[in-house]
Amino acid sequence: MSALVRSEHAFESDVAELEAALALPSFSPALLDEDAEAAVEADWGIVAAVAALLGLAIAVVAYICSVCEARSFDACRDAVVNYFGGGC
């Protein structure tokens, strides 16, 4: 009977270790230290800068295509290439 009790205790211990190993880490911003917060803010700053540049590029292409009255993709592409070479 003693072996059975010891076996149940070992099983419970193994289950507890398995649950701890499978527990998902928490990435809550409240748990980050100041250096980690600065790194996360820097990463988001880079993402925002890239998104702003892409948005500006799309706006310029849309402007050129509307000014040159390009209505298809190929016409728009040709208008953008020609616009920087000498206009529509």
UniProtKB/TrEMBL annotation:
Keywords: Membrane, Transmembrane, Transmembrane helix. It comes from the Bacteria. The chain crosses the membrane at residues 44-65. This is Uncharacterized protein. It comes from Clavibacter nebraskensis.
